[in-house]
Every structure is written in C-alpha cells, then in structure tokens.
Amino acid sequence: MIMKKRNIIRFSTLILLVLLLLVFFLSIDTKDDDFDLLFADNYISCIIPGDSISFNIFGAREVHGRGNLIPELISDIEFNNKNIRIKAFSVEEAQVTKDHHIFNFIVETEIVGDNVEKANEILIFFNNQKTKKYSIGEITLVNNKNYHENDIETIHSFTIGYPIPSLDVGIKNKSNDTINVNKVYDLNKNLNYSFDESTELKQQENYDIIISTFEEEKAYDFYTITPILQYSKNGQDYFHNMHDVIYGVLIPDEEKIQKIIN
User: Fold this and answer.
1) pTM, whole model, 2 decimals?
2) Which is it for the CA torsion 54, 58, 61, 66, positive or negative?
3) What is d(CA 135, CA 122) in angstroms, rounded to the nearest whole number?
4) What dihedral do alpha carbons 116, 92, 59, 43 form, nearest 10°?
5) 5: helix, coil or strand?
6) SS3 letters for 191-256?
7) What is the sign, positive or negative, of the torsion defined by CA atoms of 17, 18, 22, 25?
8) Per-residue pLDDT of the chain (262 residues; tens, 9 = 90+)
C-alpha cells in the first residue's frame, strides 16, 4: 500500500511537471505571437504611375531569446483607408543588434478613384487570430491624373536615393514655348522649394534642378515621394511629376534602428 502511494505521488509530480513545462512553452509562444512592433515615422507621398505602386514601411522590434520572425506570424495586413487596397506584400527582417531586429514591409498598393487618399495606420492580422493596429507615419497617394504634362522630360542621370530631402535632376523644355520653373513639392507640400522668378527655360533648353534642401513642415524618419514640378507657360500653371525618390533609406541598418527606437 505504501509503495502504491509513493507511485501515485511520483506520477502526480510528473504530471504536474509536464503541465508546468507545457504552460511555460505556451507562454513563450504566446509572447512571441503577441510581440509589439515599433514602426518608424514613414512618409509616403506618391503619384501612382500605372495601376499600382510599391513602397517600403520600416520598423523595429525588441527580441529577447528565441523568437519567431514576422513573416511566420502574420497572415494579412490592411491600411485604415478602404480606398487604399493592398495587392501584395512581403516582409523582410534581419537582426541588427543583440536585442533588436529591423523589418521592412514591402507593400504593393492601388487606390480606388481619382481622389487623394491618405492613411496613417496599418492593421495586422496575426496567425493566432489576434489583430493589432499600429501607427506608421503618413501615406498619401493619388492616381496619375492631371500630372506628367508632355512639355518636360528628364535628361542625364537621375539620383533616386538621398540621405536628406534634396534633389538633383536635369530637365529639358520640349515645348515650343518659353516656360517658367516655379516650385517643386510633394502631394502634401510637406516638402517645398520655390525657384527665383528669373528661372526661365526657352524652347528646347536644358536646366539642372539642384535643391540642396527643401523647406520642410514636419520631419520624418524615412521618405518615399514623387517630386512635383510646378511650371507656367503662357500665363497658365502646369504640373509635371518626376521619378520617385527616397530619403534616409540608404543608410546602414544600425543607423536605421537608432532612428526608429530613439
């Protein structure tokens, strides 16, 4: 009888130990599946050239010990604007420091209609049936309508990536009229630059636009914008959208992490 009691006690102890281990590992999995993401202050201000556009949304997360990668944990995403539709997305993630990973959501989107559409949050659907909303900065998109007039073309090489908001691009006046180059800005006019009144291009004349820095209403961590050139011809204003440019993206991941977490 005493032996039976001892066996029962040992068996109960074993069961309890197994249960405690199970709870421990489930708590780890739950923690991994329920981690907090810290998105950078991203600024997307683009004119969609065709049916869709792709851009990057950067962020970081703190990692202690083992942890699943983001692509293993999420099933879908959407923005807080139903008119901005996500056609496809992928996530890249890499360990930068001992405790931090950097991630990059590469998102292909399209918008419904011809209005300017905005979003500032992303909704993430996790595989564990949980859903979370995160602030991501600011997204402003519009379809290519009333832009890209045929009077101007880009010449020479075109710089896409810059450390800070600036611009270096050559243009040519293809029209048969004299034009006046007036301003360069983005859709929100968060970045803005005004030329001197004397900036005049005769027909077929070339001009190098060199902007060392924009006037900026609000600073962000990372930018993807479509520079819009406003020019006038025969007393009427026209608009030409240039190639998209990125600011602050082509820096080491260690510097990106510091931007995001500080």
Assistant:
1) 0.84
2) positive
3) 7
4) -20
5) helix
6) EEEECCCCCEECCCCEEEEEECCCEECCCCCEEEECCEEEEEECCEEEEEECCCEEECCCCCHHHH
7) positive
8) 544 444 444 545 555 554 444 444 444 343 444 467 899 999 999 999 889 999 999 999 887 655 667 878 899 999 999 999 999 999 998 887 878 889 999 999 999 999 999 999 999 999 888 999 999 999 999 998 777 678 999 888 788 999 999 999 999 999 999 999 999 999 999 999 999 877 899 999 999 999 999 999 999 999 999 999 999 999 999 999 999 999 999 999 999 999 998 8
Place of tokens 């007039």: 149
Specify the 3-state DSSP secondary structure of 42.
strand
**Which pair of tokens denotes residue 162?**
């810059």
